[in-house]
Specification:
This protein is of the alpha/beta class and 286 residues long. It folds into two domains: 172 residues, D-Maltodextrin-Binding Protein, domain 2 (3-Layer(aba) Sandwich); 104 residues, D-Maltodextrin-Binding Protein, domain 2 (3-Layer(aba) Sandwich). The protein is 38% helix and 20% strand. The strands form three sheets. It has a five-stranded mixed β-sheet with strand order 2-1-3-10-4, sandwiched between helices. β1, α2 and β2 form a beta-alpha-beta unit. α1 runs parallel beside α2 and α2 runs antiparallel to α9.
């Protein structure tokens, strides 16, 4: 069976996470995340955060009795619907600091805080058959490069920026054998041996479909465009219970919550790099 034929739905992941969380029981509840009377909270986020939020939501629901009504989708589209007053949510995990700043300026976000950061890496099939060592190797003759340049902006924009900043756009494009619109499909082809290397978000290296079938290498952070790296958590003006929303946000941004993001390939806001990026990018609600 080809690897890409394996089908693992988000629903199956969520059921598993819920079952695991249910085992935790009252003895594992944290002080500060106390149960309220049953209620619900509507949460939206960038789709790339979905796996982490599914796990976080399941744990929070098991500890508080609340229902988290969660939607993970393309953050740009969600943001546009909010700014155009065509959509409403109570909590919003936004990608790109500028989006949260626009929501605040428009009076749609009551406040926001740093949520986590993403990163980009050089990825190869397990065993690294082509002997790729760094970004420059993608320009070597005969290297089969697969890039998601037709994907949505978070998947394609930073990759184009990395190539431009490294001065390798021309040579690497000559080696490109696949210009994908779906990063997941591209990764399936990569692990099936149809390519030698790609550039992806680090979060994908933790995906159940790929984590045991790939290897990855860091990319010099000076080459990575900073805009798409930042995620923020907004409490929206539509919130019905601010105490509940703040409690949920506190859990998401707690050390425990951030460890979940780290397991899914993101950078914690409590890590040395996370703290440095908060200061460098000015990720503050001012």
């Amino acid at each position: 069976m080809k690897f890409k034929e394996i089908d693992e739905s988000r629903r199956g992941f969520l059921k598993g996470a819920l079952a695991a969380a249910a085992i935790a029981g009252p003895e594992s509840m944290l002080a500060g995340f106390t149960p309220f009377k049953p209620g619900s909270l509507q949460v939206w986020s960038c789709g790339g955060l979905s796996e982490a939020f599914n796990e976080l939501n399941a744990i929070y629901e098991s500890r508080t009795g609340h229902n988290i009504q969660y939607t993970g989708a393309f953050a740009g589209a969600l943001g546009k619907s909010l700014l155009a007053l065509q959509g409403k949510t109570e909590v919003f995990g936004a990608r790109v600091l500028e989006l949260s700043q626009k929501l605040r300026k428009a009076g749609l976000s009551l406040r926001f805080r740093p949520l986590c950061f993403t990163d980009y890496v050089l990825v190869v099939p397990k065993g690294n058959p082509a002997g790729i060592r760094d970004l420059k190797d993608l320009a070597e003759p005969g290297v089969r490069v697969m890039l998601p340049l037709r994907a949505s902006p978070p998947g394609s924009g930073p990759v184009k920026g990395i190539l431009k900043n490294s001065g390798l756009t021309g040579p690497v494009m000559k080696n490109m054998i696949a210009n994908g619109s779906c990063v997941i499909q591209m990764m399936c082809d990569l692990v099936d041996g149809k390519g030698d290397a790609s550039i992806i978000e680090k979060r994908l290296t933790t995906h159940d479909r790929f984590k045991d079938k790939i290897e990855y290498m860091p990319i010099d952070e000076k080459l990575i465009p900073p805009g798409p790296l930042t995620f923020t958590l907004n409490i929206m003006k539509y919130v019905k219970d601010e105490k509940l929303a703040d409690d949920f946000a506190d859990f998401v941004c707690s050390v425990e919550g951030q460890e979940i993001f780290e397991r899914h390939g993101f950078t914690s806001i409590h890590s040395a790099r996370g703290l440095e990026l908060i200061e460098r990018f000015g990720v503050k609600d001012v």
